[in-house]
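Chapter review: from sequence to fold.
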Amino acid sequence: MNETKQHIGKVILAGAGCGDPELITVKAARYLQQADVVLTDRLVSKDILDRYVSKDAEIIYVGKQCRRGYSTPQESINAYIAEYALQGKLVVRLKGGDVSIFSNILDELQTVVEHNIPYEIIPGVTAALGAASYAGIPLTGRGLSTAVRLLTSYKSDIVKDAYWKELSQTTDTLVFYMSSEKLGELVSSFRQHGISEDKLLAVVEQATTPLQNVTITNLYEFEERCCKKTFLSPSLVIIGKVVALHERFKWFSNVRSAEHYFKPLRHISLDSSNSNHEQKLVRC
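The token string follows.
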């Protein structure tokens, strides 16, 4: 009895860059042109999808919205990856920024390895680099900072005082992802642990997009200047002496707008013929 050999496709885990569609790499763009299926995050410029993805390819939005609106469970994303690749298709899992920085790539790597699916990892311009460059803030500089730390929001009750003190006293530039909602708590913790007044805080909203806006403040003036401000997603926080360089080297215009560059997601039901998934997300 002859058995039909299963043809396995390939998965490309690729970073799209952090907003400006021209920040995508040549290699990622090439794979998008060849893809049968593109599983894309919300924080990917629509221009990238319009410019590079074939009209014959299927685009599925699998973004997350940080407790705001609809989000795709990671388990569903893993299922999409395995299902389409095992059908012999070239699947591009397109992530905003870089694939290795706060992106849940481990879950997806485990999925492809467990199913023996060939894969490649293609880096992208992460938000820290894009936001800093478009804000005119070199992340390192002689006499200001010789190292950079990439962090995400912390709950003050699970971080030891010794670590807060070390973060407050370091000369490293600190870059916080996904932390704008807890910014007041971050600032309070830094102040309680004696952060120097010559270290400034920058919030870069919607970095590298036409709607980028940069807010600069002293941490000890934060409550007065920013406590009632809501920062648009995505926002990146930079803390350190290098932030002062913004005024001298800013080159990209600020736009004070409440408009979202990355549109929110909404839920639609899948066709009843496809019973393997419970939901699909699309851009509004």
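Two observations follow directly from the output. Residues 10-125+260-283 form a domain with the Cobalt-precorrin-4 Transmethylase; domain 1 fold (CATH 3.40.1010.10). Residues 1 and 123 are 45 Å apart (CA to CA).
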